[in-house]
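Hello support,

Our group uses your service weekly, and this is the first time we've seen a run hang past the timeout. The protein is Peptidase M24. I'm not sure whether the cause is the sequence or the server load. Input pasted verbatim:
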Amino acid sequence: MKERAARLSALRREMNIFGMDGFIVPRSDEHQGEYVAPCSERLAWLTGFTGSAGFAIVLAKKAAIFIDGRYTLQVSQEVDEAAFDYRHVADEPASEWLAGELGAGMKLAYDPWLHTGPSLHRLKKACEKVGAKLVAAPHNFIDAIWADRPEPPLNPIYPHSLDYAGQSHGEKLSDIADKLRSEGQDAMVLSLPDSIAWLFNIRGSDIPCTPVGLGFALVHSQGTACLFMDHRKVGEEVRTHLGDNIKTYDPQDLAEHLDRLKGHKVRLDGTSAPKWIHEHLKKAKAEVVLGDDLTVLPKACKNAVEVDGMRNAHRRDGAAMVRFLYWLSKQPFSKGVHEMAVSQKVDSIRSEDELFYDLSFNTISGAGENGAIVHYRVSEESSIPLPENGLYLVDSGAQYRDGTTDITRTIVRGTPTDEMKDRYTRVLKGHIGVSATRFPKGTTGSQLDVLARHALWQAGLDYDHGTGHGVGSFLNVHEGPQRISKMPSKTALLGGMVISNEPGYYKAGEYGIRLENLICVQPSQKGEREMLEFEPLTLCPFDLKGVEASLLSSAEVNWLNAYHARVREELSPMLGEDEAAWLAEATQAI
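Update from on-call engineer: The timeout came from a worker crash unrelated to the input. Re-ran successfully.
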């Protein structure tokens, strides 16, 4: 805490030197990704907060950190409440906090590389309301005081095999160029690393858990492109793979290429591109056309090769999970069976797969009360034994060369309480409600969200996170634009989209429950309208010791029994004799 207090004081001195009254510290980098390289962990360095979303605003005498509902417990454990106010970003927005803290003539600074235009809009309005100004900082004030800041990553990028991609990067580039021409646009700037990785069929390891390289790209309507990545990351194999139509440059060359776009219509996704790029294009007198990143939708709609890859990856991942659950079932209650050790065990089993590349996120391993922290990150200091009687939540996944996995299971240890079984079953009912539904083409995820929450709502319960997020193919474990959430969505669910189905329930200080499968949108039997349905990709049993069968309808029982029969049939040949016997018992019909 003393070290963080000194950092906060240093930041305030830096702000004062340059005549600024405040500075915004986001948990983001120049690419607006969920995971960032160590050199971009500015929010964690300043505050101690290690969550994947949030930001802080530091003024001369006050500071606040803004987080969503996933992190209300975590922020209190990691951030000094004497230095920062805790604010729920939806219930207590930054605009309200600033209205009470800023005054006329004050300047609130931001780094234009770390924010998008829309993310700054409300803050700009809040400043103007009290006569203050939102201004671009002359440099990043955190970087100026972070003496031992890590160097940017320089890990090499490499080609992603057509055996896994299913479509050549030449065909993808041609398709995007066609779309640009049809829109009357001359070029498009890409800033999302997964968009660049997908379009050019390349992968990297610049950030944790996500196989991408950091950089920018400029796609021209003639079917050519420029890739801006440090030349030390781009070897001869990649240059040969990219071919003559894709030229590589260092990132510092981006400004010069943007300057050449004077008078051209340039497409830019304002929701993901840094404010700096938008402002530079305007300064260069390019005609900026704000529109969706044209790679996002085709990337989300997996082709047949990618869907098969996801199926194969999930089958192997399911076998790894069953081996882990079998091992865990044999572990007695003891101090040695604690969150960290169990997390390391599931990670180790996965890593034995020949196509394993990395985890898809840091495993969430929450026993008892820690399971109620939605994005709990176990450490040596926080790790507690799994309960003798209670619940253990494990949310984990992997990056395999042929697909990305993400699964959550809540495991009953010993004897659960009646309340635990009631809550577990209501979460399971919500999971089945989503997975078993059929819906007409054009339906969005927000229209399905109620299916996951209905059983909980009837008991006066809910959960404070989305029901489902998109998942990439050996790419981001959290991918847009598809989602299942209370939040309105303009994106309809389309064939080939992979999305999570993960309702939950969390009782603060006691336990948490989440049940997650990945599901793939597929065509359904046609009626009067074109219909879609979900294919479960994840193969792993739900813990029947948590199920109160009397709360399930006959249709829900049939779904659960059919799912467990499929799990048993597909995974048993991949298991040892004892593991297969355990699986047979774990998937018995109810």
